[in-house]
Amino acid sequence: MKLLTVDTVSEAREKLLIAAQQKKKQIEFVELEEAMDRVLASDLVSPEPIPSFRRSTVDGYAVRAADTQGAGESIPVFLEIIERIEIGTPAVRMVQPGQCSYVPTGGMIPEGADAVVMVEYCEAFDTRSMAVYDAVSPGRNLIRIGEDIQEESLFLKKGTRLRPQEIGVLASAGVHTVPVYRPWKIAIISTGDELVPADQKPMPGQVRDINTYVLDAMSRKYGFEVVSKQVLQDQRNLLEKAVDSAMKTCDMVVVSGGSSQGEKDHTADVLDQLADPGVFTHGIALKPGKPTILGYDTLSETILMGLPGHPAAAMIVFELLAVWLYLQLTHQPAPAYTTAVVETNVASAPGKETCLLVELVDGDDGYIARPIFGKSGLMTTLSRAWGYTLIDMNKEGLKAGEPIQVILF
User: GO MF terms on file (predicted)?
Assistant: First the structure.
């Protein structure tokens, strides 16, 4: 083993980032219809203003605002109707003082007009005249050229996860092929002689596999492409074969279990043997999550990660390292957080960062963070948690009423 020094979370992240920056950028172009929930891989600048013409937001009459001044419910102003503009067709005639043109919602505002009076405040006086009962200000009931997107302006940033509303923005800007990051391919390997599938009743000494399902769900949540899932017995040759095969096709290989120093804990040796330069971190100053392994293989550009076997610890480490790294390299924002005050005094682990799971309850002045205590082998502790906070390794703990930042799951 080349290096067994325990790192802080920050040190481990820095090493991961340095290693992963060797990976080639993985960008592909997809059709707009396939871009939902993908991550934008470049900044997008509009070559034209959106909209490219002034549009009405109501059914009404395009007017010169100055012509309507003084109009009211009992004192209308009378304007000459010069044109009826159809939706989807250009306005032809320019509105002069004392004139107006009918325009539907979304229709083009003619030159000379600077506002629209809603039809509810208009009444036909004769076939060519309109009584207007509302005084409007310039810009009323219309959208200006470039009001949505200005010409040559940045309208979507890289790292944006595309929701239906962003799909609409892309369509409005005429973007029909979208540059997106190719999802990282990930292989999930869980090890343990005691593991049985979730649909099988465990025998004495056995437990149902949890980590494979949890890590699969987390991977899909954050946009990874899960290409393989395996549950292996604690045999070195099986692990070697599985990791070696996964490195040929995956961007990341995650091994859950076997990361400590027991007789059957082969993960660190196997990852270091198969990769070059191999393992650069074995052990993190974090509770829970100390027996974490990190490595990299230059030839296959594969990130290697060994997670603790305890489900809650595995999930927390995956969130803090694998998810963090992927968000960093695809320029996505960090997970959402909120502020809260701690409900009770909480002690921390000396010499380690402590990950404290909390549930949030409403208080008089905001959220109260109620600590969730439980051993890292118990999944129900996580199911109750809204999120977590990290207690600095140099702090003895948190005091009741102390404000904290809660990263939300």
Answer: metal ion binding; molybdopterin molybdotransferase activity
pLDDT tens digits along 2-40: 444 689 999 999 999 999 999 988 999 999 999 999 999
Question: Partners of 263 in the beta sheet?
Answer: none
3-state secondary structure of 319: helix
Rg of the chain on CA atoms, in Å: 31
At CA 261, angle to CA 257 and CA 264, rounded to 5? 60
Residues 6+ apart with CB under 8 A from 237: none
Phi and psi at residue 217, to the nearest 5°: -65, -45
CA 323 to chain centre: 11
Q: Would you state the structure tokens that stand for residue 265, as one six-digit string?
A: 């804990």
Q: Which residues contact 262 (CB under 8 A, 6 or more apart)?
A: none
Q: Name 165's Cβ contacts closer than 8 Å, sequence gap at least 6.
A: none
- What's the rounded Cα separation, in Å, for the pair 108 and 56? 7
Q: Phi and psi (nearest 5°) for 356? A: -100, 120
Domain 337-408, second-level architecture = Beta Barrel (2.40)
Would you list the DSSP string of 92-142?
Answer: -SPPPTTEEEEE-TTPBPPTT--EEEEGGGEEEEETTEEEE-----TTTTE
Low-confidence ranges of the chain (pLDDT < 70): 1-5, 259-265, 375-378
> What would the CATH number be for the domain defined by 55-143?
2.170.190.11
**Of 373, 371, 369, nearest in space to 338 by CA:** 369
Distance CA 268, CA 279 (A): 7
116: burial class by Cβ within 10 Å (0-12, 13-18, 19+)? buried
Class of domain 9-26+182-329: alpha beta
